[in-house]
Specification:
By secondary structure, this protein is an alpha+beta fold. The protein has a single domain, classed as Phosphorylase Kinase, domain 1 (2-Layer Sandwich). Helices cover 43% and strands 19% of the residues. It has 7 helices and 5 strands. Strands 1-2-3-5-4 form a 5-stranded antiparallel beta sheet. A hairpin with a 7-residue loop joins strand 2 and strand 3. Helix 3 crosses helix 7. It starts with a helix and ends in a 5-residue tail after the last helix.
Length: 137
């Protein structure tokens, strides 16, 4: 009986951690991708905002060159999807004062806030940059 319980518990190890399956987005490759697509990227506190700057995986702010910041976004990177959920909770509570960066997306360990509603083209570019960072150094 005891052996059967041990086997049952061993087989229920369940879900793999995100890091084990390589599904964490990484800030460095996202920065490179955005810069390659004519974005200016900053990781400075004065640009990023405190919530994203203090995220466990760091934060960044990016704006498309030559658009008078019509494409302006902030990304907070966590070490897990739980980090991203917590960051999003903080943004919902505190980032509406003033009410900028209201359009938000949470994917895996990243929370993206847009200053203006993103076009489909810009949202797809961002998702390509995020997806391209998986498994990168």
């Amino acid at each position: 009986m005891l052996g059967g319980c041990a086997l049952l518990l061993a087989g229920c190890g369940g879900k793999k951690k995100e890091a084990e399956v390589g599904s964490l987005y990484k800030r460095g490759p996202v920065i490179s991708c955005l810069r390659a697509h004519d974005f200016t990227v900053s990781t400075q506190l004065k640009d990023v905002n405190f919530i994203a700057y203090s995220a466990t995986g760091g934060g960044l702010r990016a704006w498309e060159n030559g658009t008078h910041r019509q494409v302006d976004l902030i990304i907070a990177f966590g070490q897990s999807s739980a980090d991203a959920r917590q960051t999003l909770k903080g943004m919902k509570r505190f980032a509406n004062r003033p009410p900028i960066f209201r359009w938000r997306i949470r994917r895996a360990n990243a929370v993206v806030s847009f200053a203006y509603r993103p076009s489909q083209k810009n949202e797809q570019l961002l998702l390509r940059c995020l997806n391209g960072s998986i498994g990168s150094g």
